[in-house]
Amino acid sequence: MAPPPSTVVEAGGSKKRRRDDDEADENGKRLGKKLHFKDEDSVREQARKYRILAARMPIKALTSAWSLGKNRRLDTKHVRNLCAIFTQGGLNRRAEENHLLVLCSRADVSRMMKHLQRRDLSASPEVSEELPFFDEWLSVNHGRPVEVMAGQHRIKALEAYVQETGANEEELWWTCEFYDKDTLPLNLNLKLRVNRQDPGMADSHGQVWVQVVAASSQDPKLFSGTAVQVKDQMTDVLQLGSDKQFPTRRLATIWRNKRWREMATRWCETSIGRATFKISTWDWMISYRIDDYWFAIFRSVLQTLSQLPGDAANEVELADWKMMSEFLGLTRTNDQIRTLFYPPSSSSSSSLSSATTRSTKRRPGFLTAIDDARYEEIYSRILMTSRLRFTNIHRLISLSKDDGKVLFQVMNHVVAWLNATPTTISNQRDNNKPPLRADIVATLNHCSDRVVREAEKRLGVFVWEPDHHHSSTPEAASILLQHEVLDFVLQRLGDFKTVGWARLFFRVDEAAS
Length: 513
Fold this sequence. Notes:
The chain has about 525 residues and is mainly alpha-helical. Among the domains are: about 45-195, no CATH class; about 305-395, no CATH class; about 400-510, no CATH class. It has 25 helices and five strands. Helix 17 packs antiparallel against helix 19. The chain starts with 18 loop residues before the first helix and ends with a helix.
């Protein structure tokens, strides 16, 4: 009989040690560890020797595209709030705490200063002489803009403020602190970009993951070693120490698991991924050893985004995807696609006119990041490509840890049906345990390629893509069997949680004997 829901049992019958117990042990060890007094300067103080100068900079000569990692998405609500503050007299462009932090070469700054000296350009009487005005930066430096490490929302708010007040375009400048891109150390380069001060603009878990990947790409030796060492490195480099609630230990757990690290990196390259990546959720997903089920869902989204025109990975938002998954099922019709993109007008005189005459007006609030031409391209691509799948990712991200445990327990039970001697996990703290389905691969040797292809088509899941590296038909069959079982459970999750699924399986066992 299957274990009761309150007990997690590994294949082979060995009891799995609860993760909470591991955390308690780790905390207990840390209590006995001698703490060292630690005090250090602020990040800007640490970076001061790499600062070239401060100067006024026209915002047209600034770019918010990052050379290290990926910048946060612009928050229009925050821009409006800043503009309101400016309106109330809070512009304060010259206050040091409001300076933009920018990155460029020392040679470009030197070239600009020499140009000013040749012009013998005096500073504005309203600004101190220590702050030169680099108004001709782009012409002097061959059109090379300066990279903004922190402050993109202030730039957009200034543009809105100038427009609202009718001020001259000459006011579109901000005081910037210039840092030398050739000598600024990687850790400080990253620390100057992260946002840990403003709770209202705190980086999402997806953005933090992007920062981890960016730092690692510059220094592959970073974030290696034991779990504690990786956690401590992340706390330091990403400035996570100021948030006691941030799940840094779990972040390190995901990073140390190669398969999940690769998937999280691919997932967070998309706008949908960055919006849905939650560290604690991914941590418990790892623990239940049904990786391929989660991965099939993630890959389905990634595959579809890759086949849409333009930069769909960054332009399609989570709300857009939710609407697509609601309208565009496996058996979608052309009318359903048309209704999503170009909904009929409420003033249509008859069903005949609405069916024969396509509305040309876009759906409000849908795919707002793209222009009309790209909108039509995406519509046409979906219309012509029936294989595109719009998986309901919201069903996945809304799952709780207890929901995940039910999936694990059911799959564990199915494996026990098909393999009387499943694998016993000796090291419960191993971060790369084998998947549950591995114990049923040999049992599925009878499956043919045709059976697998038919199952893929029926489930709308394609496991033989080039990047999946599944080397055998039984391997693919085990993934599809797991997917079908767990999809069945998800559709009836309430029943499995309330009816007492252990007794249900006992009755099935009795009927089969």
